Amino acid sequence: MVTPSQEPRVPIINHARNELCTLRDLLRFAVSYFNQADLFYGHGFPTAYEEAAHMILHTLHLTPDQLDLFLDAHITQPECDQIIHRIEQRVAERIPIAYMTNEAWLGDFSFYVDKRVIIPRSFITELLQSQLAPWVKQPDAIHAVLDLCTGSGCLAVLLAHGFENASVDAVDISAEALEVTLKNIVRYDLAHAINPIQSDLFNELTGKRYDVIISNPPYVNAESMATLPEEYRHEPRIALAAGPDGLAIIRTILSEASNYLTEEGLLIVEIGHNRDILEQSFPHLPFTWLETSAGDQFVFMLKRSDLT
User: Where are the alpha helices (DSSP H) in the chain?
Assistant: First the structure.
């Protein structure tokens, strides 16, 4: 007996091309198809419905607030073919939607992304929405900021919006990633505020000092890398893997950051699920764990005086 999960998908797709007429039809089909395929949702949209709606609206060049307006609108055959192709590609190849649409969101900001960078996702986003309050008391007094391991440049863009008097250095080891960074700098007309720099962490930053350093570095340990869902394997390994315990990059940041912070400077780093091993490895450091929507396990802050 063949179970529903074992049924061949190609005939289902062929029927879909011929029978789905409206946006509502396609949305329902996509959600059912995604649910059946047991996809992993960790790149911006937490459910099959939200991911399917985003994909379909993007393909049709519609905005989220237009979904209800056009739910019962008939879809042309070329539009239907394009949407079905993306649905099939998402399931067959496990490609994250963000790479298929070249678009990812952090809060109210949209960013260009492709496979040269990881898809933006960071709890630091939430902290920047309040300009790092209460730790930064005078945002206008922040003049130099560093986004270390910038990737797509998403956090650098948020920094430039949050600290309008600041010059932002967006640093990454990958020249390919910095090409994407530059796209997003231009997208938000921030060439005057953000300086992309290719550097292996601090290597090319000799003599620079920053009021704030933020970083969402690679922090996935070897055991977790071996069991990542297929969706994550489309992302650059260099942006995820961080040695046996996930602290390879963070150790370097902690050992060198004090040399690049101003006297009252702050270091803010996202570390994934590594809080316990981090505290065991650095028992002398007085980590301040910052509260986010997921709790206080994922982002720490240190003052320069803590590091020295």
Answer: 9-19, 23-37, 48-59, 67-70, 77-93, 97-101, 124-129, 154-162, 175-187, 222-226, 248-256, 275-281, 304-307
Q: Taking Cα atoms as reference points, which of 260, 203, 280, 239 lies closest to residue 122?
A: 239
Question: Identity (one letter) of the amino acid at 101?
Answer: T
Q: What is the pLDDT of residues 144-193, one digit of tens each?
A: 999 999 999 999 999 999 999 999 999 999 999 999 999 999 999 999 99
Q: Across the strands, what pairs with 259?
A: none
**Intervals of CATH 3.40.50.150 along the chain:** 115-307
Give the pLDDT confidence score for residue 216 in this predicted structure: 97
Contact 158, 131 (CB under 8 A): no
The confidence band for 18, taking pLDDT boundaries of 50, 70 and 90, is low
Tell whether pTM > 0.85: yes
Give the number of other CB atoms < 10 A from CB of residue 293: 8
Length of the chain: 308
Classify domain 115-307 by CATH number: 3.40.50.150
Listed in sequence order, the DSSP H helices in 172-247 are 175-187, 222-226
The secondary structure of residue 277, as a DSSP letter, is H
Distance CA 216, CA 148 (A): 7
Q: Return the exposure string of 186-197: e unless at least 16 CB atoms fall within 10 Å of the residue's CB, then b.
A: eebebeebbebe
